[in-house]
Design a protein that fits this description.
133 residues, alpha+beta, 4-stranded antiparallel sheet, 3-stranded antiparallel sheet, 3 helices, 7 strands, 29% helix, Adenine_deam_C
């Protein structure tokens, strides 16, 4: 994705919360940060990660099916706050809900364009949209 989509000035985000299949989904402005973000989520056996300039800035492990934590609610809330604070510091508006957006952009049953393992899908026409670079 381009930088302007989430107002992300640099870096990448990754999540294992991607309805309905809950596959890994990653968005960012460079391959290196995107790879590190994705691998951070994989290392944690699921969860959320934000990477910038080759460093993991914030992460939340969700090792139970890639959706739930074994930590206390207070610990999870603190880690989510750290993720949101780090994203805000890197230009993502608080109202964007970047992880919620990633979770639903992959939901293939909602009309318009969706992202799944086949690529970008035009749901109404049930066709893969060719990538344009």
């Amino acid at each position: 994705m381009r930088k302007s989509n989430f107002s992300l000035k640099c870096g990448a985000v990754a999540s294992s919360i991607a309805h309905d299949s809950h596959n890994l989904i990653v968005a960012g402005d460079n391959d290196t940060d995107m790879m590190l973000a994705g691998n951070t989520v994989r290392k944690n056996k699921g969860g959320l990660a934000f990477v910038a300039d080759g460093q993991v800035v914030a992460e939340l492990a969700l090792p139970v099916a890639g959706l739930m934590s074994t930590e206390s609610a207070e610990s999870v809330a603190a880690k989510m706050q750290a993720l949101n604070d780090a994203l805000k510091a890197h230009g993502v508006a608080e109202d964007i809900g970047i992880f919620m957006t990633l979770a639903f952009v992959s939901l293939p049953v909602i009309p318009k364009l969706r992202l799944n393992t086949y690529g970008i899908i035009d749901v109404a026409q049930q066709k893969v949209v060719p990538a344009v670079f």
